[in-house]
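User: For a benchmark we're assembling, each entry needs the component sequences followed by a predicted structure for the full assembly. Here are entry 17's components. Please fill in the structure.
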Amino acid sequence: MRLITHNMLSCNIKGVTNGYPLGIEASRLETKESELNPEFLRKIFPKLEWKALRDAAHSLGLNDLPEHVEPSMLEDADFLKNFHHALLEVHLEEGALICPETGRRFPVTKGVPNMLLNEDEV
Amino acid sequence: MWYLCYFLHRLLDYRLPEVEALAKLYGFSEGEKPGQGLQWKQAPAHHPDSPFYYVFLPNEEVAHKIASRSLLLKGMYEVWGEGNSKEELIEAVSSYPEERKAPYLAKDHTFKIVVDRFGKVLSSSEQKACIESIDYVPFQGQVQLKNPQYKFWLIEIDGQVVNNGLPPLEGKHMYFAREIGAGDRSLVSKYELSRRKYLGPTAMDAEIALLMATQALVQPGQLVYDPFVGTGSILIAAAHFGALTMGADIDIRVVRDGRGPDCNVWSNFKQYNLAPPLGLFRADNNMPPWRNNVSEIFDAIICDPPYGVRAGGRKSGGRKMLNGKRDAYIIPEEMRKDHIPSTAPYTLEECVHDLFDMAARLLVMGGRLVYFFPAARDECSETHFPKHPCFTLVSKSEQILSTRWSRCLLTMEKTQRYSTEEADCARDRHLEFKENHLQILQASKEKGNLHSVVFSPSGGAAGPDLQEQYGANGQTNQESRPKYRGKYV
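Assistant: Structure for entry 17:
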């Protein structure tokens, strides 16, 4: 699971109001290089929750994302490289996503988060 | 300018929408004023399933691009003349403007003539005779059979023959035309399912998946989502056209495990050297785990919703609980880790409602939702298709499954932003579905579910509604649609 997926998902258990962002429990991370596509990054940037991305990256030991961002930074090659790396190249292979409100663990196995709810959560 | 489209005789209902979608992809669709955009024209004697259509396009370049990416076009042509007899054809070709013909007939060019008779294979001696009979065009260039600069086609329709089961086109007709572009079906064999490593029972046929991606106007760099991803067969087609993809499925074994480390959704993308999906996750379309404020992130949503013929839809929430057979579950803490949540049947109606709500929220403006919808054959019309205030129907393509059932590929375009009003309305509907689960399920069973209708002998398991509709003996009204379509489509 890349951080782009993490950025879009939340805990949707019935009654939960603050299910975002999900905490990350990482047992195995993998870095897979991929081609940098500035156009895509510029397009996806306004759709992301920056703080959630930065905090998630931080919790995985990636400290290169600035706290405050503005669209002009998308012209900067170094920024794009760090942004691309955090968003698309780091994969959570094994671990879990944790609901900030209830502490519910959504397991991540073989890179696939299991967001399905139990009967008492829907 | 008007160009002749000569279609292949397959997927009849998909052919015009494919050309329309490609025209839009190459920047030509609605003109400023009515009458300037893409238009279709047919010879009066031709029925709607005829392989010959004239299409109005701005220029040869667009026509060439469309033809080269088309799967269902044999070719696109500039017609120099047509007629019901050889004399009429000669007359028409000789009166075609000299300045349009001369550049292609000049001395220093290479050319080739193709003879084609619709629905018939010509022997080489017949072909030779036909070619030699073209003495009414003053060719001066060199004949070259391999990679000539220009290809000329003599296309004939023999009115007497029942072509491939099509009702005969009235009378004999002939075209002499210059090829602008030819369709390319190499992709269909490249992505053929029989060569794909990881397959499921509902993997989408490669040709249809590619056509779906075309309908969705997939372009490089776009983000495409399939909420019922399965083995990824639809996203593979999208990825082929350069899209980045995301998929979800309620069945974790399919998305996570596949049949092992080298035979799963990821390996399917790897097999064709395509960019792997940006993300795959397990989620329920009925309760998608998107963050509240996520909106307009996908350029297209393409899917084949589970409507219960080969695989029934499931949604989360205990089956017994929704049926009212037991009270709310409390799963003990020590059991939570390995608990497998039970799922309940997911009716088509609810599934489509959820799909629309999600697509209305997550698609960019102008983004397309392309999906299959099952319909009784005589109900395959606009009035029976689901509607949503945010979407406009662009095209529908019927594909016949049995004498009674079809599936329609529907292409919808997002033409209105998702508002809080729609969100509130969707939330109410969601609760309604949940509270009335049992009644809705019962009602859909009484109607006769798709699985039983598709696979039962006619009249057998059809519900009361269907019995009535199709007469007491369960026979379909065969008059309503010509039979040949079911046989060859």
